[in-house]
Amino acid sequence: MKQTAIIFFSMALALQGSFSGTARVVDGDTLRVGTQRVRLHGIDAPELAQRCGAELRQRCGEKAAAWLKARIEGKRVACTRMDYDAYGRIVAVCRIRGEDLGAAIVEAGWATAYRRYSLTYVPAEEQAQAARRGIWAAGFERPEDYRRDQRDGTSTSPSPRCRIKGNISASGERIYHLPGSRSYADVRISSAKGERWFCSIEQARRAGWRPVR
Description:
The protein is α+β, with helices and mostly antiparallel strands. The chain has seven helices and twelve strands. Helices cover 31% and strands 26% of the residues. The strands form three sheets. A five-stranded mixed barrel has the order 1-2-3-6-5. Strands 11-9-10-12 form a four-stranded mixed sheet. Helix 3 runs parallel beside helix 4 (122-131). It is elongated, with a radius of gyration of 21 Å.
């Protein structure tokens, strides 16, 4: 009975906009604060399974979570509710001893500014990018693009140096798309269909792909 009362009290505080509690890290942008599951507002960290860098060797999702865990795990954080997300999580700005956790992890280079929802952390991202901290040192796919590719069954480049997309058209033509070309951003690579990434134009042509017209 006492535990139920504590849960309802915690939910009531969350609905009022402010709550606090002991933090447990789920991943680079998600926490449990007391009984609440919280998504940090305005930032987007690599997914736990996401890899970055040359040959995708760096476990950047795990590193982002580890960075946050070292900073706040088991400590008391104070949060201000901003919204709820599609998964029912509270979206909040959380602080430890007055420090904004969103700003801290973005500035450290282990999360990006989630521009779709807020521009608050863009300056922190720009600082991290300029200093090549965290994921900016390795080369990475933005987390929202990674999630979309996972949903669509598409693959990510095995290396930041291999950015040429080898697409197979509906008629079976093998066409490569260079970064910056008109349709490049819309092309998704599905290894199940035989599509692939190339590191150079010469490599793509040797494999039988032609340039987009």
